[in-house]
Design a protein that fits this description.
- With 403 residues, the chain is an alpha/beta fold.
- The chain folds into two domains: 12-284, TIM Barrel; 293-402, Sulfite Reductase Hemoprotein, domain 1 (2-Layer Sandwich).
- Helix content is 45%, strand content 17%.
- It has 13 helices and 17 strands.
- It has helices at 38-51, 63-78, 93-99, 101-106, 122-136, 151-162, 170-192, 208-219, 236-252, 273-284, 307-329, 347-353, 386-402, and strands spanning 12-14, 17-19, 26-30, 55-59, 85-89, 109-112, 140-145, 199-204, 227-228, 234-235, 258-260, 263-264, 293-296, 337-341, 356-359, 369-373, 376-381.
- It starts with 11 loop residues before the first strand and ends with a helix.
- The structure holds iron/sulfur cluster.
- Residues 297-300, 302-303, 341-343, 345-347, 362 line the site of iron/sulfur cluster (SF4).
Length: 403
């Protein structure tokens, strides 16, 4: 696995999950149910955890949501799910946390947006939230978002910039203001009495180049752990690609201690998709392994049958279905690589690089499929039972090497 020279940060405990320091990058997610709907929120939290989310954030936007939190925690614990729940607060967090001590106790972390803690009594409201965090021994995330940036601070900084002989662009001033807002809030929280290792920062934007720029700036200012993600990433392929290309360069630079992929699901779509994408980003960068990876060629005119595509999909599905068992019984199996290749051009070469590979016959090639195990020719399959025979070899390899 690659470590990419992780940026130095302090470790923050969110429940029993450690974020920052030398701890693995944490995948987290957020529900999109009405938090006051205990049944659907509990169900979705469980789905997200089963997909691999190590923290789950829920919006806490009113009294009903705040009152639901202890019951949600009880429900998921009754199902054997032990995951820290993070509360997302805007505008009224100081009131909800003060009026609902059960909610304040049950949450493992409070997310505060300094641009959304009020206008008139901003610092007083912020102070109240920090005092609740201190008295409950909870960490906070100071999450700045450029869509809700502290307008007073931004105006001040724009005015100062305008007086310079060589002023920065408006965009650069916005990034500076985001970082300053996060840092100023963190300093204020520490002045109130919150420990240094109880603070996580984020500064989210929705454009990829901006994300890279603002996080490079933020990461240079402190050793607080950083929550990384592209906000409002979008729908489907756009959201997945934008998130991957946005956060990957930062992860390679060692920036980012916890990640969240903010996808817009299709109506009725699977919320856990954001967890699978986050894990795949970490696995593609070889930062962490979660399940064996199937290498498959894209196919071309040299293999016109759909058999090769179906087999690649079949093996991928088989691995995913087996992982709940394999993860427990065969530690280290998540590092395994499997190749399913379409013809002789790259098939044998790629198969030899994988732990197990099969090179299927392309058009006009002899109808035989050589199998390679740890770089050596193992056997040659042909005929109708080929896929099942390959699975048998795969199972045996796992038992022998990871059992
Ligand atoms: S391995 Fe063969 S079938 Fe697959 S993309 Fe390459 S040439 Fe085409």
């Amino acid at each position: 696995m690659n470590s990419w020279n992780r940026r130095k940060s302090v470790a923050v405990a969110v429940g029993d999950v450690l974020i920052g320091g030398d701890n693995p990058v944490v995948v987290q997610s957020m529900t999109n149910t009405d938090t006051a709907d205990i049944e659907s929120t509990s169900t979705q939290i469980i789905e997200l955890v089963e997909a691999g989310s190590k923290l789950v954030r829920v919006t806490v936007n009113n009294n009903a949501a705040a009152k639901a939190i202890p019951e949600i925690l009880s429900r998921i614990q009754a199902e054997g799910i032990d995951v820290p729940i993070v509360g997302d607060f805007h505008y009224n967090g100081h009131i909800l946390l003060t009026d609902n001590p059960g909610c304040a106790r049950s949450l493992a972390k409070y997310r505060i947006n300094p641009g959304n803690v009020g206008t008139k009594h901003r610092d007083t409201n912020f102070q109240k939230i920090i005092e609740v965090a201190i008295s409950n021994n909870k960490p906070i995330r100071i999450g700045v978002n450029w869509g809700s940036l502290d307008q007073r601070l931004l105006t001040e900084m724009m005015d100062e910039n305008a007086k310079l002989t060589d002023p920065k662009s408006d965009r650069e001033v916005i990034f500076d203001a985001m970082v300053k807002s996060a840092m100023r809030s963190a300093e204020l929280a520490e002045e109130i009495g919150l420990a240094h290792n109880m603070i996580i920062l984020s500064a989210k934007v929705s454009e990829v180049p901006d994300l890279i720029q603002v996080y490079r700036l933020l990461s240079s200012q402190s050793d607080y752990p950083l929550h990384l993600g592209l906000t409002e990433a979008g729908i489907g392929i756009k959201g997945i690609v934008a998130t991957a290309v946005g956060i990957s360069p930062l992860l390679i630079e060692g920036i980012g201690d916890t990640i969240r992929v903010s996808l817009t699901p299709k109506p009725g779509g699977d919320r856990a998709e954001e967890v699978r994408v986050a894990r795949q980003i970490l696995q593609s960068l070889k930062i962490q392994s979660f399940e064996p990876q199937v290498t498959a060629c894209p196919g071309c005119g040299r293999t016109t049958s759909t058999f090769f595509q179906e087999m690649a999909q079949d093996i991928q599905t088989y691995i995913q279905d087996q992982m709940p068992i394999w993860r427990n019984d065969f530690p280290g199996v998540e590092e395994m690589t499997v190749a399913v290749m379409g013809c002789v051009v790259n098939g044998p070469g790629e198969s030899k690089h994988a732990n197990i590979g099969i090179s299927l016959p392309g058009t006009f090639e002899e109808p035989k499929a050589p199998i390679y195990v740890d770089g050596k020719h193992h056997s040659t399959l042909q005929g109708e039972g080929l896929v099942e025979e390959f699975k048998t070899i795969l199972d045996k390899y796992i038992r022998t090497n990871y059992g």
